[in-house]
Specification:
It is a single chain. The protein is of the alpha/beta class and 311 residues long. It is built from 7 helices and 19 strands. The two termini are 29 Å apart. The protein binds NADP nicotinamide-adenine-dinucleotide phosphate. NADP nicotinamide-adenine-dinucleotide phosphate binds at residues 120, 152-158, 160, 177-178, 182, 204, 241-242, 285.
Length: 311
């Protein structure tokens, strides 16, 4: 039988929330281990330039920023491992976490597994992601000053992204697969009444055009009613077809909301299980920013420290 490795704090996830929790927990002598997961560094590692993270007035790339977070956590003794948690058992303390058949246990767990932007699944989308294709207007909209952008989706996120992008872009085209939006009425109306926005109804993206060198140059759009395709030029495309929180291993274990985000107590990172804390996008579908995730990672480490003191 494998030996169980006991830690004071286990952190699951390595985006801004997980690694900030690691910095604070390590400085608090909690000897944390961070399981970095499938995408070490989290969603920022698939963006290019980050211009809105405070402290970097000249901007920094997402991967570089996350390397700095990791280095800072390691400096205080956090152990960061490129491993993926496959199973948890939170039915009693100490809580158990498995990485394949390695077993770890701890009285305090910080979940920071984030969310994943849903994408269309096209090969060209994968290639040009970060080179004109983005899933975050707040992060990348600024790069499209006086340019033309497409927004794919028909929910509140797509409306929000389209409206935000009108601050920079000269033209915004919403590409939606049906003939009506799912978004709330107020958001729908704002989009439909905005002079810079036009909607391509019953339309899907069939392929993106461009290369890493040229960046995105356009898209092939298909009319779902007639089946006809045409080329539309654009400088950027924002995919806003929803996010999926990375909570599949916590289903039926921790309280999740209807959209499967982890529920935390208001003003705290405490979940419904004592000693289990959640921070970052896995519990926040509203702000979803690196800086807000980092802030909530800090709160989770402080909440965990306080909790361990009370045991
Ligand atoms: P959502 O409501 O699930 O909308 C996703 C949109 O993307 C839908 O219009 C859907 O089309 C489309 N879509 C999904 N898969 C697609 C695909 N493969 N190809 C093309 N289009 C696709 O997601 P969301 O907009 O991110 O919102 C999530 C939740 O957060 C909602 O409850 C929303 O109200 C809330 N939210 C609120 C605000 C706000 O109040 N300010 C802002 C953002 C989000 P169909 O309509 O055809 O299914």
């Amino acid at each position: 039988m494998n030996e169980t490795m006991k830690r004071k704090v286990i952190i699951i996830g390595s985006g801004p929330a997980g690694l900030t929790a690691a910095i604070y927990a390590a400085r608090g002598n909690l000897n944390p281990i961070v399981f970095e997961g499938n995408q070490p560094g989290g969603q920022l590692t698939i963006t290019t330039e980050v211009e809105n993270y405070p402290g970097f007035p000249k901007g920094i790339t997402g991967p570089e920023l996350m390397d700095l977070f990791r280095e800072q956590a390691q400096r205080f003794g956090a152990e960061t491992v490129f491993k993926n948690v496959t199973k948890v058992d939170f039915s009693k303390r100490p809580y158990k976490v498995w990485v394949g058949d390695e077993e770890y246990s701890s009285d305090a767990i910080i979940i920071a597994t984030g969310a994943t932007a849903r994408l269309l699944g096209l090969e060209s989308e994968k290639e040009l992601f970060g080179y004109g294709i983005s899933a975050c207007a707040t992060c990348d909209g600024f790069f499209y000053k006086d340019k033309k952008v497409l927004v794919v989706g028909g929910g509140d996120s797509a409306m929000e992204e389209a409206l935000f992008l009108t601050k920079f872009a000269s033209e915004v085209r919403v590409v939606h697969r049906r003939d009506e939006f799912r978004a709330s009425q107020i958001m729908r109306e704002r989009v439909l009444n905005h002079p810079k926005i036009k909607v391509h109804w019953n339309t899907v993206v069939e392929e993106f055009l461009g290369s890493k060198e040229s960046g995105l140059t356009g898209a092939i759009l298909k009319d779902t009613k007639t089946g006809t395709t045409r080329e539309e030029s654009c400088d950027g495309t924002f995919i806003a077809i929803g996010h999926t929180p990375n909570t599949s291993i916590f289903e039926d274990i921790i309280e999740l909301d209807d959209n499967k985000y982890i529920v935390t107590n208001p003003g705290s990172t405490q979940t419904n299980l004592p000693g289990v804390f959640a921070s970052g996008d896995v519990q926040d579908h509203k702000y979803r920013q690196a800086v807000t995730a980092a802030g909530s990672g800090c709160s989770a480490a402080l909440d965990a420290e306080h909790y361990l003191e009370t045991l």
